[in-house]
């Protein structure tokens, strides 16, 4: 597939950057790329103290994604494959989950959310179980349906879950993963999706709740569909998405680039792309490129206690169809992966200059977010300090 991999040496890249920095003075080392670490250092340690189910501030900072579904539908496998690089075959040996597991995915400030993996066998509607509290701060509820199994029970459960959650929090995004589709033929996949879509929506219409919107995705941990679906779910929770898309549009149109994705390197979720349509093969190529870069860096590039991905990470892969894949580090955890025609890549200087401007703009987006979070936190502390231990207000509000 690829004719050659040119992972530019760190030294060379550093020299390039120094030259670039001297020229346009856009990126200073002290500030560079630390949008996230700056956030984590300054905010996360403090946030951890206030992270609990009942605190609305904690959910504002880290939107919560709930992973639900019947037993053995594949919830834990999805989480392990997407966020822990577990190979799909290893999930065969996963034990059944017996308690609610919470995972904070705060590896990047853009992918900064919590996932709650619910064991399938918990009686979710047991009156002693405070589901209101759980749904109240939830950003997205992913309901996993095993498409290889009889899904009637799962549909009933989906209906119950969605209607209960909607009553508590009408702002939740309901995302249905029709999962394990690797075992189905193409026709069967489409038919299953149509059937599940129809039945789930009919149930809602019968209950007079047709205004609830369900989004459906065909997923499998054995291909990229699970990453693609998760990307879409996460993107809906990113308030800056339109700004990021705009920046990408401006960047590609001024640099002769065909397509660009902003990736969270660890999870291979793309948090934004330009407005040209995404095709699965392009996305898969980008994922493969990230794997290649990280693997090569792990094997040959690590120095002492360094990480395989850092501010000097950069890779160029020339394909045999006159396309060039270009990966560059944007922040500590985000990478830009672009598709460029060979002839456009000849103007690499222009691409690199525009990239600097793009990276600077992304850092500004981070900054605004940090400021907003700080002021919200400050407000919430003021409100808290006005409440006496018996719950009454100290001063009139
Ligand atoms: N074919 C196929 N099997 C999958 C897929 N995802 C998960 N599985 C398998 O499904 C089985 C159950 O997966 P789990 O992740 O343990 O399911 P769970 O929903 O977390 O189960 P509980 O913990 O009991 O609630 C495992 O054997 C996985 O290997 C998939 O996309 N395709």
From TrEMBL:
Domain of life according to the entry: Eukaryota
Main location per the UniProt record: cytoplasm
Subcellular location: Cytoplasm; Lysosome; Endomembrane system
CDD domains, A to Z: RagC_like
Alphabetical UniProt keywords: Cytoplasm, GTP-binding, Hydrolase, Lysosome, Membrane, Nucleotide-binding
Acidic residues bias (residue ranges): 15-26
Region: Disordered, residue numbers: 1-45
Catalytic reactions on record: GTP + H2O = GDP + phosphate + H(+)
Pfam families named among the record's database cross-references: Gtr1_RagA (PF04670)
Gene3D superfamilies linked: 3.30.450.190, P-loop containing nucleotide triphosphate hydrolases
Family indicated by similarity: Belongs to the GTR/RAG GTP-binding protein family.
Function comment: Guanine nucleotide-binding protein that plays a crucial role in the cellular response to amino acid availability through regulation of the mTORC1 signaling cascade.
Name this polypeptide is given: Ras-related GTP-binding protein
């Amino acid at each position: 597939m690829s004719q050659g991999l040119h992972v530019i040496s760190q030294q060379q890249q550093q020299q390039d950057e120094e030259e670039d920095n001297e020229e346009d003075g856009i990126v200073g080392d002290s500030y560079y790329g630390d949008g996230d670490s700056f956030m984590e250092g300054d905010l996360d340690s403090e946030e951890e103290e206030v992270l609990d189910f009942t605190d609305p501030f904690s959910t504002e900072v880290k939107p919560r994604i709930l992973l639900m579904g019947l037993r053995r539908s594949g919830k834990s496998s999805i989480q392990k494959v997407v966020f822990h690089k577990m190979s799909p075959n290893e999930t065969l040996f996963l034990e059944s989950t017996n308690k609610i597991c919470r995972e904070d995915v705060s590896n990047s400030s853009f992918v900064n959310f919590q996932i709650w993996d619910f064991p399938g066998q918990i009686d979710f509607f047991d009156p002693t179980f405070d589901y209101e509290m759980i749904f109240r701060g939830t950003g997205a509820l992913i309901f996993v349906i095993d498409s290889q199994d009889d899904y009637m029970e799962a549909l009933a459960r989906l209906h119950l879950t969605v209607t209960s959650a909607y009553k508590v929090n009408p702002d939740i995004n309901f995302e249905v993963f029709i999962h394990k589709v690797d075992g189905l033929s193409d026709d069967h996949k489409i038919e299953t999706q149509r059937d599940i879509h129809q039945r789930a929506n009919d149930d809602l219409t019968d209950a007079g709740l047709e205004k609830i919107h369900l989004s459906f995705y065909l997923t499998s941990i054995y291909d990229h569909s699970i990453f693609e679906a998760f990307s879409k779910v996460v993107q809906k929770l990113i308030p800056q998405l339109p700004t990021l898309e705009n920046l990408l549009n401006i960047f590609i149109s001024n640099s002769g680039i065909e397509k660009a994705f902003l990736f969270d390197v660890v999870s291979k979720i793309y948090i934004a792309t330009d407005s040209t349509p995404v095709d699965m093969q392009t996305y898969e190529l980008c994922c493969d490129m990230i794997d290649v870069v990280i693997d090569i860096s792990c094997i040959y590039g690590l120095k002492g206690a360094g990480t395989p991905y850092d501010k000097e990470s950069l890779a160029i892969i020339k394909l045999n169809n006159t396309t060039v894949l270009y990966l560059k580090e944007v922040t500590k955890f985000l990478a830009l992966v672009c598709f460029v025609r060979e002839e456009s890549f000849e103007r690499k200087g222009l691409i690199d200059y525009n990239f600097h401007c793009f990276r600077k703009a992304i850092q500004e987006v981070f900054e605004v977010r940090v400021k907003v979070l700080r002021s919200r936190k400050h407000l919430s502390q003021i409100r808290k300090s006005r409440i006496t231990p018996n719950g009454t207000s100290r001063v009139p509000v």
